[in-house]
Amino acid sequence: MTDRSLLILPGDGIGPEVMAEVRKIIDWFGTRGLAFDVSEDLVGGAAYDAHGTPLTDATMAKAQEVDAVLLGAVGGPKYDVLDFSVKPERGLLRLRKEMDLYANLRPAQCFDALADFSSLKKDIVAGLDIMIIRELTSGVYFGEPRGIHTEGNERVGVNTQRYTESEIARVARSAFELARKRDNRVCSMEKANVMESGVLWRDVVQEIHDAEYPDVELSHMYADAGAMQLTRWPKQFDVIVTDNLFGDLLSDLAAMLTGSLGMLPSASLGAPMENGRPKALYEPVHGSAPDIAGQGKANPIACILSFAMALRYSFDLGDEADRVEAAVETVLADGLRTADLLGEEGMTPVSTAEMGDAIVARLAAG
Length: 366
Ligand code: IPM
Ligand code: MG
Description:
By secondary structure, this protein is α/β, with parallel strands linked by helices. It contains 12 helices and 14 strands. It folds into 2 domains: 1-115 and 260-366, Isopropylmalate Dehydrogenase, CATH 3.40.718.10; 129-257, Isopropylmalate Dehydrogenase (3-Layer(aba) Sandwich).
């Protein structure tokens, strides 16, 4: 018996393939006396195909009960025609909203073995280690009013950027707490030059800092300048905290600095549950990549590193998380590359499953 429960939602496209490799890691820990109580269910297009909804109430209820949800990816061209309310992405957004996962941690770390693979020069990205904290439950993704209506003889599309003080304060605290465990620096990004919600964002982040975290170094940047600085000299940052939409954009940008979207994990955390563990969902930053699905080309590392984040943030198993990360690093240093990372001379091309097997073998060896 175990008191560690996981709900696995592989989802669509390459989701099931990369999740199959995570299952190998989970099983390996199981053989070593570290068992997880794992259940699996549908989300996204897969759930829509089976139930006519991207997330059933039963799956939502299960997600609320477990210690951690692991999600693969959702979406695909086949679902583009669907109404907004049942698109695969709505399943993911419902999980984030109803679990109230307000702090989305997106590390952008450059593995030495992949520094040549970045679209930027090696010295700009080698050793890069930044953490983007994206607010995940509010802002323009959820603000009301929203919709498309008709005014006179034309259609008008409306979305609302809305943030309350408490929504800003809680994600700011997450950023400051995390910074204290890293290089103790936070840069907050908004558009206070054009948006009232940005003015409030800047004010509240500063207030929380002054009252509770004066020891942390805080700076503010407009999000557009932030994007520019991220490509110019990303190593100037430690922790970046920003809203839902800017965080969506900036985290894709930061991800690409490291060479491949197929490498980056994320954790979405909410308030602590009764057992002290935070509400939590872990997912790779990449999407469902329908163009390569089912061909063994997908890189399982982002999903495997997302499980490592679950070990660290949900189960307080930092040493085990370090071991998984070290195994990934070794396998990359050994020259193993999935299709997304091929291009350099002398590397060994491997399939999704071979990459997973190699990481398990490293864990077992080490
Ligand atoms: C992400 C994705 C999602 C988002 C989509 C799939 C709804 O781009 O997690 O970054 O926009 O938040
Ligand atoms: Mg995104």
